[in-house]
Amino acid sequence: MHSRFITIAGHLALGILCMSLASAQEDQDKNVMLDKLEGSWILDSIEMRGEKRQGEDLPARFQGMKQTIKGDKMIVSRVDGMQFECRIVIRGEAEPHELDIIQEDREGKKKTLKCIFKIVDQTLVLAEGRDERPTSFETGPDVSTKVSTFTLKR
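Structure (tokenized):
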């Protein structure tokens, strides 16, 4: 009976160790992705409902828009002087990577924008869903996903 208890305790300890290692790996993956996101990202294009707008075709308030990410903070700055700060959270090892942008409005209510993203070379592609997290970077007439493309400014 004593050896059976030791066996069960050993399995339990091994399970806890495995979960701890998996959690540590997930935290490390999140930190690596946060490091890759750090910097100033300049808006290049926005695609909605299958229509892509970039450069001078972007609405004036979005031309030159910048997202600066440091740690878990994002500061969004527009050329019209509007600026706000958000908190970002990377969710797990999902593919594509998941990102929550959490912003507090003037009344103190938190709003969470559920996104997916990918980084290709010096380009950040961010897909935002209206009510739920997108599952792809595709847009179309019947799809409410907005896909924004940013270039890293060094």
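The first strand starts at residue 39 and ends at 48. The radius of gyration is 20 Å.
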